[in-house]
Amino acid sequence: MERRTLKRAAGMLLIAMVGGAVTLGMYKIFEDKQSFSADRPGGIPIRQVSYNPSASFNQPDFEAAAEISVHAVVHIKSEFQKKSLVYDDFFEFFNFGGRSQPREYISPYSAMGSGVIVAPDGYIVTNNHVVQEATAITVTLNDKREYKARIIGSDPSSDLALIKIDEKDLPFLSYGNSDEVRLGEWVLAVGNPFNLTSTVTAGIVSAKARNINILGSKGAIESFIQTDAAINPGNSGGALVNTRGELIGINAAIASGTGYYTGYSFAIPVNIVKKVVADFVKFGKIQRAYLGVYYREIDDQFAKDKGFSDLRGVYIDEIVEGGPADQAGIKKGDVIITIDNSPVNGKSELMEVIGQKNPGDKVDVVVHRDGKELTLPVTLVSEDRGQSIAGTDKLIIHGAVFQALTDEERAKLDVDYGFKIVKLDEGKLKNSGIRVGFIVLAIDRKPVTTADDLREALSGRNGGVLIEGVYPNGLRAYYGIGL
After folding, report:
1. Is 393-482 the same fold as 289-382?
2. What is each CA distance from 341 to 47, 298, 364, in whole angstroms?
3. Is the pLDDT of residue 359 over 80?
4. Third-level CATH fold of 289-382
């Protein structure tokens, strides 16, 4: 009986191994032939294949890519004065149920992560949540050399940070192009899971432009590359590379109900990484470009309600008065199809395209309007400029939406002027502790009586300001923020 059971198990194992070999080699049996059909919605390409009996069963070779990558990926130890809620609440233990799992620290006030050397003189990219609030950062290279690192800049909206060590002639990874990454493409994840240095795992690209709503702000750039390469706690900030050893992403998140890898992981596209690194090195802060639209994604029901025959693009709900889109002639009700030839079918893709641009860049925006396709050149501006929403008395500055007080509100509070915060996204104002409902009365002791006063005080200067105001319940409050 035992012999028959073992024999049957061995047979099943052999079948599984052969099936796996056939699956891995199948793509070589066929030769690609591209054709396009006008009958397909949106001109979607139809991939045709033809049998090639002479093709071999060659499997992808990861050895060269792994050898290049492990020497450019570092171990990061961050120390905190208090337990870092940022580290807990961000990516290490994200799950689709929305709850973070408890973090087990190696010591009460330290956490581990990974980083990628992107320049020979010591510039290292990692996740913001790995180093934010850290009082000390220690970087260990693959050859065990240790260095103290300093933060050059950090960006919560993309969960990226740039740190630096004082060393030269370091091994580094060259940038790839995340726009050219294809579904099904083989990739490697390199990092330090569970404090195990120089760990390499392999998988394929499962999806692109994935938004998992983890960063929690409207201005956040979430357009992750999804893979099934295994990553675990400690991989955050590590490299996602292609088979040529080029950096195509920074690993950041896992989809898990337990806190450990169970199938999918997410990486920040390298084209966003390049933009963030360049801004920190050149300007010391992010130069975020701004299009000036409010939009919504198009689903089947919305398309039926609007009478759209095509589900592509994003629908423009509102136009910011005087903003780049408004000046370029984009209108409420337009549907943006592409920006600079990149398809825009949802928030993730729009944010990824704009997130790679700088204020002053010119982009070609293609929109559908009244059954016609229009190409409109748009010159982007800085997102920190105060802008009014067309058709309203609302103003947007630093992630906050301000609205002038009504006559009834002024009478109730016994004030002659003021601007109330009616919405608050991530930004400098929210970080200062201000809450929705706060009414700004004065900035640096000067009364804020007009929209121009507010715009000039918060977006027309550098340095710190003192904001004075009151909450609807009569509580007076003061906030100091750095601009």
Report:
1. yes
2. 21, 19, 8
3. yes
4. Pdz3 Domain (2.30.42)
